[in-house]
Design goal:
The protein has 388 residues and is mostly helical. It has 15 helices and six strands.
């Protein structure tokens, strides 16, 4: 259709589909309770507070409409205006917890978390001014992932109804948990091939630094390795770093070598960043003598941390390290402390450093850390990572 055709066509106002207030209200409650982690009591209070707010706003709108109409000489009864402006009880039966839960289940295929009793413990509680011992049951909640994948009907704007199914696209865990989930060896110390995404052996990991220097694992190969392991046993299991066939493989569309992303806590902040910083501190403190360890620790001690930042532990120096037979700066930090240390180091010691290649290299590591920790990722970012 050309623009001319469009101009010449009479504009036909399509009647707006009536808004299903109950569904919209239920979606609102689901979204807010999820974002704010509200309890059932919290949702009840949210319903009454929101209704009060809507009542106040609609009353003010009705007054304003009344004033404008009377200025224009139109007289309509106050009650009629209020009836038009007031949306009524927006939550209706959704204010009741039991109705709400059954509505969520029916309308949105909501899968109810199943409570699993982990055990009981005794706790002193005060009842009617008296201290009594009470048995408390501790629960965890299990959500049946497969139940969340069952199809539901999606009605398109033209009335066509499509059946839509969910799919598992990735499973998130730390390194040992993800290895376990994928059927790989949890501890890779004795495995020849140590990575669940590529076929790297220990020597490769020490000398190769670019992703394209490694051979990626593929799902077809993985299935062949599993066949070998199931027939031949232990030897192939050690060669490929695989223990058993993960049930995840049976899910349609899942690639076991790609769907278990590495966690930055173990791989970056508890590994690469610590080694990198130890080497950097040796260079800037012992070799170049830009600053002393005391100056760095004083910076760490006196920096004004925000309530979100975990203060890094002081760095100590061990002259008797047996491992690398030379003095080493010990960074005994948790991943969250390490994250702060990497981020803050330029502010703490940047002023002492001259033009220095090792420092430039650290700034690249810092950019990588910034990028992998960001809440939003742009499609260009992986390319930038490769460039770094
Ligand atoms: Zn790898």
């Amino acid at each position: 259709m050309t623009d001319d055709d469009r101009d010449s066509e009479p504009t036909m106002a399509t009647p707006a589909a009536p808004i299903d207030i109950e569904r919209e209200s239920a979606l609102f409650l689901m979204r807010v309770s999820d974002e704010l982690s509200l309890t059932h009591n919290g949702i009840d209070k949210l319903c009454s507070a929101t209704q009060w707010f809507i009542d106040s706003v609609s009353e003010s709108v009705a007054d304003s409409v009344q004033q404008h109409l009377s200025k224009s000489g139109i007289s309509i009864s106050e009650n009629d205006i209020k009836e038009v402006c007031h949306p009524g009880e927006v939550f209706g039966k959704l204010s009741s917890r039991y109705y709400r839960e059954s509505y969520f289940e029916d309308a949105f295929n909501y899968v109810k978390p199943e409570p699993i009793c982990l055990g009981t413990e005794w706790e002193w509680v005060t009842k009617n001014g008296q201290q009594i011992l009470q048995q408390i049951q501790q629960y965890e909640y299990y959500i049946d992932v497969f139940a969340t994948l069952k199809g539901y009907d999606l009605t398109l704007a033209d009335g066509e109804v499509l059946k839509v199914y969910g799919a598992v696209v990735c499973a998130v865990g730390d390194v040992p948990a993800s290895n376990f989930l994928g059927g790989f060896k949890e501890g890779v110390g004795f495995a020849l091939r140590k990575c669940r995404m590529c076929l790297a052996v220990k020597e490769d990991m020490a000398v190769k630094f670019n992703a394209d220097s490694f051979i990626e694992r593929t799902l077809e190969q993985h299935k062949e390795y599993l066949d070998l392991i199931e027939i031949g046993g232990q030897r192939h299991s050690v060669t490929y770093g695989i223990n058993n066939r993960s049930p995840l493989i049976n899910l349609a569309g899942i690639d076991i070598n790609k769907c278990l992303p590495y966690d930055i806590m173990h791989t970056l902040f508890e590994a690469v960043a610590i080694h990198h910083l130890q080497a950097l501190l040796k260079h800037v403190i012992d070799v170049k003598k830009y600053l002393t360890l005391a100056q760095l620790n004083s910076g760490l001690r006196t920096y004004e941390y925000s309530h979100l930042e975990v203060k890094p532990s002081p760095i100590t120096k061990d002259d008797n390290s047996y491992h690398i037979k030379q003095s080493v700066h010990f960074i005994n930090s948790l991943a969250c402390q390490m994250m702060n240390l990497v981020r803050l180091l330029p502010f703490l010691i940047g002023k002492f450093i001259d033009d220095d290649d090792h420092w430039e290299c650290f700034l690249i590591l810092r950019s990588i850390c910034d990028m992998v920790c960001s809440f939003e990722v742009h499609p260009d970012n992986p390319a930038k990572l490769a460039w770094l």
